[in-house]
TetR family transcriptional regulator (Actinoallomurus iriomotensis), 189 residues
Amino acid sequence: MAGRPVDHQRRAELLDAVVDYTVEHGFSDLSWRPVAAALGVSTTTLVHRFGTKEQMLVAILARLRERIFAATSETLGEHPDLATAARAAWTRTSAPQREAEFRLFFAVYGRALQAPEQFAGFLDRVVADWMNALRDAQGADTDPGTATRTATLVIATIRGLLLDLLATGDRERVQDAAETFLATLPRRP
């Protein structure tokens, strides 16, 4: 007897709702019953769509990463330079309305680092997406080693500034540091 086939559209809609719920309520106490009740579905529906709780966490991580990357990429245009790409990433990630999303991002990032075998897909992509985009933003004529080092510094600096902002709430000081950093990045003529 074959089970019901997975409706990928419904799973995607449900996953977006689960991510929204998790952004609002946090990651540490995520469990089937409260999520199901909040979304108006049964726990059986969640299990059918996601498998185990750990598989649901992996799906949440992947969708959150996709959302963050896609939202920033949309603001860049077709061929941004490094300064434009980094500024777009900083502007998007540091926006006050994104605080809950990035608190969740760092919480799940920490969880993934604690269980790298379980969250290998997330860890593989969380840097690679930005690394590729920031290397590309430096232009084809940039030495690949230099482009990789520069992209690494941009990613680390933006994430560090964002952690500082989330930890302290000192928007003026952190924004000033971000502006100082962003001003050092090259623009294509």
User: Anything to note?
Assistant: Residues 8-182 form a domain with the Tetracycline Repressor; domain 2 fold (CATH 1.10.357.10). The chain has a mean pLDDT of 86. The first helix runs from residue 8 to 25.
